[in-house]
Amino acid sequence: MDLPTVRRVVAREVSLAEVASAHADALTAQIRLLRSRRAVLTVIARRGASPSEADLLHRLAGLAARERRRLVDEFLDAAFGGLTDPGFAGIRRSLTPELPDDPDDCQIEAWVELAELTLDPGFRAGLRRLAEQHAADRKGAEGVRRDVVAVVREEVAPALADGIEPAAPEADPILARAAGRYARLCGRSDDADLRRRMLDRLRTASDPRRERYLELLSVVNGWPPAESLAPVLDWSIRALRARQHLA
Fold this sequence. Notes:
This protein has 2 domains: 1-59, no CATH class; 63-244, no CATH class. The chain has helices at 3-10, 16-47, 51-61, 65-80, 87-94, 105-118, 121-138, 148-161, 172-186, 192-205, 208-221, 230-244. The longest helix has 32 residues, at 16-47. The chain is mostly helical. The chain is elongated and about 90 Å long. It is 72% helix and 0% strand.
């Protein structure tokens, strides 16, 4: 406490409690800033970022709540804007990060990396394509329907647990059930065209940046860790390729 403040306390111009409260608030703000800087430096050191990347990471970490919200809204608008299916409102909410007022170091680090991902043009384009594919599959359908990723997850997970190889004959009925469910979801027949369509959707969904976004989102929002769908998607893609001879 500086001498002028001490004189004000002694002169009863201000109470010691008021001064302590003001200092506590100032320290809280300073600690929050230092934690943010430490988190950014950790990310920079871990990935060996260039000066331009480091500058971007610092700016993303320093965004105010309103600026963070605007960044996320622009990202989600790019992915879902103009798509009128009512199911996308819930999907959009499920992809929205909400950094708490007093985040821990892990949440700050996750936010910085997630925010950087939202600016990736390739990731934005891939998520938009996935949304358009999902909208095309649901066209004319009423109510909420699962997408192809949810279908293969439910059908393929047991095969992975049992160690069934995607090219093995034992995988035939598993793939047939998944393709049949997807065909009913789309209102189509399970034929070669349907399976090409299915493969196209799964390839789009298998973008590792999508899985990384979901991992980071769970950390930022304080949710349980996101389940990795990479093994299920990889198995399904390999199974389709093995039977359709598609590269």
